[in-house]
Amino acid sequence: MATATLTIDLDAIAANWRALDRLSTPVVQTAAVVKADAYGLGIDRVAPALARAGARRFFTAVAEEGARLRQILGPGPQIGILGGHMAGDTEMIHDLDLTPMLNSLQQVTRHLESLPGHPFGIQLDTGMNRLGMEEAEWRAIAPIVLEAGPVFLMSHLACADEPDNPMNAAQLAQFHHMTDGLGIPRSFAATGGILLGPDYHFDLTRPGIGLYGGQPFDAAQPVVTLSLPVIQTRDVAKGETVGYANAWTADRATTVATLSAGYADGLPRTLSNKVRLWDGDTPVPLIGRVSMDLITADIGHLSEIPRSLDILGPHQGVDDLAAIAGTIGYEILTALGPRYARRHVTRQTGGQA
Ligand SMILES: *Cc1c(COP(=O)(O)O)cnc(C)c1O
């Protein structure tokens, strides 16, 4: 196998969706967030697996992603566009039956004028100051908006991965203050918000990262394995150096393996000299700098030269790698590069789906 292989367990994604769905009461619907190519894992295979698991509502960031998702899923499922109704997207929103989450007076005007009667949601800002209407703007146009009948009102939490952060309760109170008594379905919680408990669930939850095995959903089944092929090995003597800037020096005679993947494939350069790879259950240190297309590992302690080593798998998940690299699991996932062969597996079919 010449290219690095990213194996994606579609059953684990489906199981994670069901587990998050079970965390809320039966009256709460659970959507699936599949923006950024399903967090880098391949929307064309991931979205149908989520639909088979029971998801009926999906979210993407921009209309182009939503259009692609409509072609994948066909008519039926609701596709929400978190970026709302942007200039130039009207035709796509109409033709592919997308549901924009309008976030400003300008977007509301654009939508109601260009596509009267076409479904939409409303995005409210409850303190994150990123997307959505603030209270005064919302109060001013709420009568017109409510008349047009939004499918739901939504907002997003800034600190949901920190259960003790007072921001959570403050945003919850503000969401109630802006939406109570309006009789419109509401959506507030992403993965972190679901874990904060039923007060945060309202009518529709919007998990993303938890579906893909990431924190803060600790109980998630792991989803990805990333195997990097060994393309050359060499013996080095004590005192020899390896890679750019001579960043690693052998303290004994050993064997060095060069593997096919680097920072251009989403392996952060901050992993240089820090992370371990795995030969089955045996850890293998990455040595020297991460290059654009290559990394090097000290395999002197292995009895045989491995065909490949895993950098993501049962011993090291996306959040472990993120912690070493100084980032978050979301960034590790969405940076996983286009050069990897993506292999989507399910247990029912016993292999490649
Ligand atoms: C990305 C996003 C989500 C999903 O968040 P996760 O933390 O990945 O579960 C939900 N809602 C909005 C508005 C988002 O931007």
TrEMBL record:
Keywords: Isomerase, Pyridoxal phosphate. Signal peptide: none annotated. Its EC number is 5.1.1.1. This is Alanine racemase. The keyword Isomerase applies. One of its GO terms (molecular function) is alanine racemase activity. It is an enzyme of class 5 (isomerase). Catalyzes the interconversion of L-alanine and D-alanine. May also act on other amino acids. Pathway: Amino-acid biosynthesis; D-alanine biosynthesis; D-alanine from L-alanine: step 1/1. GO terms for cellular component: cytosol. The keyword Membrane does not apply. SUPFAM superfamilies: Alanine racemase C-terminal domain-like, PLP-binding barrel. Its cofactor is pyridoxal 5'-phosphate. Residues 223-345 form the Alanine racemase C-terminal domain. Gene3D superfamilies: Alanine racemase (3.20.20.10), Lyase, Ornithine Decarboxylase, Chain A, domain 1 (2.40.37.10). PANTHER family: ALANINE RACEMASE, ALANINE RACEMASE, CATABOLIC-RELATED. The modification N6-(pyridoxal phosphate)lysine is found at K35. Belongs to the alanine racemase family. One of its GO terms (biological process) is D-alanine biosynthetic process. The lineage of its organism: Bacteria, Pseudomonadati, Pseudomonadota, Alphaproteobacteria, Rhodobacterales. It catalyses: L-alanine = D-alanine. CDD domains: PLPDE_III_AR. Substrate binds at R130, M292. Pfam families: Ala_racemase_C, Ala_racemase_N.
